[in-house]
Amino acid sequence: MIAALKRPSGFLPVILIGLLILYPIVASDTRYEESVLIICMLYAIMASGWNLISGLAGYVSLGHSVYLYMGMYTGAILGKAWEIDAMWLAPLGAVTAGLLALVVGLIVLRTRSHSFVIITIAVLLLGMLVAANWRGLTGGSDGFIVKQPSWAKDHPTTPYYYIFLGILLLTVALSAFIMRSRLGAGLVAIRNDEGKAASIGINTTLYKVTAYTLSAVPFGFAGAVYGQFLGFVTPSLVVAILMSVFLVLAALVGGRGTLWGPVIGGFLVWLLNEVGTIAAGEFRARLLIMGVVLILVVMFMPMGLLPTIRNFVKKRRESKSAVNFIDQKSIAAVSDVDISKIIARTRQQSEGSSHILEVKGIVKRFGGVTAVNDVDMAIERGSITGLIGPNGSGKTTLFNCMTGTFRPDEGVVFLDGENITRDRVWTRAHDGLGRTFQITRLFKSMTVLDNLVAPLETTSVRQMVAGRYSGDEVERAREVLDFMGLAQFEKQDAAALSFGQQKLVELAQVLMLRPGIILLDEPASGINPTLIEKLANVIRRLNDAGTTVLIVEHNIPLVLSLCDTVHVLSGGEVLTSGTPDQIRNDPQVIEAYLGPDHMVGVGNE
Amino acid sequence: MSESVLTMANIEAGYGGGLVLQGVDLTVDKGTITCIVGPNGAGKSTVFRVISGLLKPKGGTVTFGGRDIGGLSPSEVLKSGIAQVPQNRALFPEMSVHENVLMGGYAIRRDRALLKERLAMVAEMVPLVKERAKEHAGNLSGGQRRMVEIGRALMLDPAVVLMDEPSLGLDPKSVATVASVIRDMAAEGRTVLMIEQNVRLGMNLATHGVVMEQGKVRLTGDAKDIAGNPEVASMYLGKTGHNE
Amino acid sequence: MDLLQVIAFGVLLGGVYALLASGVTLIFGVLDVVNVAQGSFLVFSALFTWQIWSLLGLEPLLLVPVMGLLMFVIGWAIYRGLLVRVAPQGPGMTVLLMFGVAIAMEGVLNIVFGNEFKSVTPPYFTSSFKIGEIVIPYPQMISGVLAVVVLGGIYVYLRKSWAGRALRASAQNKDGAALVGISATKASSLAFGIGAMTAGVGGVLLAIMYPVYPATQYDWIARLLGIIVLGGMGSIPGAIIASMLLGISESIASAYVPQWAPVFFYGAILVILLFRPHGLLGEKTREDVAA
Questions:
Q1: Comparing C64-68, C202-206, C229-233, which segment has the lowest mean pLDDT?
Q2: Average pLDDT for residues A22-34, to the nearest whole number?
Q3: Residue ranges of the domains in chain C?
Q4: Nearest-CA distance from B61 to chain A in Å?
Q5: Distances in whole angstroms, Cα of residue A11 to Cα of each of A18, A56, A480
Q6: Which of chain B's residues have a Cβ under 8 Å away from the Cβ of C181?
Q7: Tens digits of residue pLDDT in A237-255
């Protein structure tokens, strides 16, 4: 019992499924109830499918019912043409729905936020309009009649009941599979921080399109059967929109992003709808009830039932043991572990160029300001290089041009001799360019271990469908954490860590990519001297093991003590470069920081 | 001896669990141009946020004209006579220059006569406002925008003007124009408190200087003295080892 | 039908669409919220106009200011009561909330009015207006003109009044607006109220042109969303242009090719979005920058 309370999603679904299986067998004359439960199951199926793109990845679609219609029409039209019962065409329905989703996804997943939501609605509208007007194919707005199989006369509901139950179980299995795979982990990373996910090697476009396509598959599959169950298919805009909205409500109520939440939500929402229709039927209050419920859920319980229950249980358990913010001192020292094996590049590095990273002629403008003005810079392989300069010198912009965050207006970026100027952010990560952020960007909803296991060195479909802990990542992740002295944080939620701890974890994340060069964005900002020292230590060890490091920093002493070479930027151009000693004593550098010479006369009347 | 118009006494402030300002004592005298400099992370912007009411201090007091303003909301601080010209774009790009400046008088919009008076005053201080009155603010250069922002801030006739990095992103000519306006403001009796990245420029322009480092005020004095002080240089490059 | 007549018709229709769309655009510009409940506001207003007309026999156009004010108040209340709390959660949730409002409103209308078509038929309902060769039905004429008048009024308000300036400022730069003392909540409430008001006025105009019943709100959601996306999410001039395009193409289509016009419209939207994800005149939002 206690176990069930700790994991409400452990026991309950099994009980639920068991009851569903037994119900028509045990009870008698349940046609009405069965037909209601069939629709409940349909909503559970749809909510689970929707969950894949919208719950996991965070891309809210409000037009997903169009894929159900794809399935319905596929089953109906081809069923009639080939003289088979529509329901046997369910797999084909899944295919056509998936294809439509693929096309839409490739078009639509390039935009974000508002546009995505609106476009999914637009696609639904377009779909309904096409269906309503293409009389030749779909029968137009009159609809398409679907022939019933012979057994349906005596058993109009029970066979469908079990078929839908089967589809529901298949859908849940698909969901579970995806959630446990790297695809699922990647989608959650995308929901947390899409830009960061890309920077650690996740091919966000591939992942999003795949999720969107897969989300349509259950719709298409169930659609073919549903069309036969109804006996007709009509393109009603009103019904389609309401269906889309209700299935989202179902996922929200149950808990989007969870496995069983959408299922439970599907049942709750449709049962509520039925109750609303019957009980308040004479007042025609059904819509009002559903609308109000949607408003209340969005306002007060946007996380949904399952997560809310889980949090409640979790909080009660945790209030016993006080939350311990492990402070800096207890971060273990850097271990003696030989890090080189863990982070060695398994891919060939072109030994042709002695410069692992090189930029030529970089120009970057923002509005009227030229932030970077024709900069050439070469980072020597195996070095620790510093990039410094006063505010407004362009060093951060240059840094971002190297990492791919900005596209330079002019100029080229070479990594290992290869021109990567046009490469996507994740491609650079695959090629061995890792970067950290000045303000840490960890995936807040995941644990430290999950954060570490998220980076990907390559993109492949096989890798995507494999389990998220399937390869040697967990082992390597633990070794990296051990090396950094962070082993005890493995199971912590990333959000619970202090800023300094997060910085170290972010660096650990980057190491998982086996980077040839690591670009550190103001690593010392916002952390105390002890941690800075530790960080310096880590950097030295990494460099000893063969990793090139480029640091952009304001903390001059750190840079001077750590780096082999220092480049100084001022006013968007390279002022000078040299060894720390040379830079330390260079009067030009001092001036650059205190104020460029040509400004001195200004302000004197 | 000029009177102090703005004082911070032992201010402690920060975000989340940390403290950025660790006991800041600051006195700004009326009619001066006081420039705050210091390396990154010193807490300069945080000082402004505390003064303007965006961040409540965790300890210490902020006094303006004798009055404790530590708990006031940003619009109350604005009404009490402290205006701010922020670092980043704060103009309305699709409104004309004239309208942008007009919006600065939002708090006094009901008093037509006063509004007209102020507009005239601002136009005199910042001729650009009249010259380019009808142009869209979005089409102006960085320096011109800064001038319009100053004009807008002056609409409420503030006793104190906070300027966050006025020279940032500007070419020398624009910097000269901005510097000249800052001087004019001080000549009128307004107090200017500014943050500057460019120490040289800051000390040339200001009458008084304040050097901050790691959440505390390290040096104060006449701008000339600060400018010539070798300690400042080493603070930026960390030679004295404060950062270690 | 004479082409000129069809176009004239379309322009008038476009005028009404423009009024409604500008409401949604204003809301989006100031609040960053897509008001999918605008259709339900519209139908609400139309049905209540019918109710009052059928009870009192009043000239329906007199209800323009009444319904406008009523919807303003309702919109303002919806913002203060519901939206202000959900807005921080992002576009997906606010759209869902507004859908909830739309459905709830439709539910209320279902209860009160049932699901039958209601039509307001003032005495001039069947008369027509003649300009040269062109024959325009009276209701369409009046609606189109009134819509433009109200839209013009809103334009003047936004340009010349302090409140209007505050709204434009909030839409252009929220930080800048806060800096000069403009309250974000007040600006948002006002914008939402005005947006709802346009639906209030539009509802009266709608009622005298076409028969209405509760579920027609979905057709309106479709049209308005299409206009907004096409015109560019925050741009009122863009919305007006797109409205005219829609009005004219619908008019042409219903005269010559009734069935397929809407398909072309939505298809065009998708194609345009392919090449310009921020609509015809819209602004690139920060989120679109590939990081």
A1: C229-233
A2: 84
A3: 14-220
A4: 25
A5: 11, 23, 37
A6: 75, 78-79, 106-107
A7: 889 999 999 999 999 999 9
